[in-house]
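can u do me a favor
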């Protein structure tokens, strides 16, 4: 364990339970913020890789056709009990 971890543990031992719960909530908040930042970075990296492919733009009609095809497939599976 690092020196800062030992120092934090010692300080936590001196706090009343209600304050320890607050610290735990704050640590959870910090962890979730780090997770969101990491997810944002992964998204940014993925978009950059996608952009580097220089793929042609997809038209609204092509998007609509894909949606309709997916809906038809889902309906087909539902009627077949899959």
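np, heres the sequence
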């Amino acid at each position: 364990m690092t020196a800062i971890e030992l120092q934090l543990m010692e300080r936590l031992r001196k706090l009343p339970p209600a304050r320890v719960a607050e610290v735990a909530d704050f640590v959870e908040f910090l962890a979730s913020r780090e997770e969101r930042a990491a997810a944002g970075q992964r998204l940014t990296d993925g978009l950059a890789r996608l952009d580097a492919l220089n793929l042609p733009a997809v038209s609204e009609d092509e998007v609509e056709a894909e949606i309709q095809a997916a809906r038809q497939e889902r309906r087909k599976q539902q009627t077949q009990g899959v």
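The chain has one domain: 3-80. hope that helps!!
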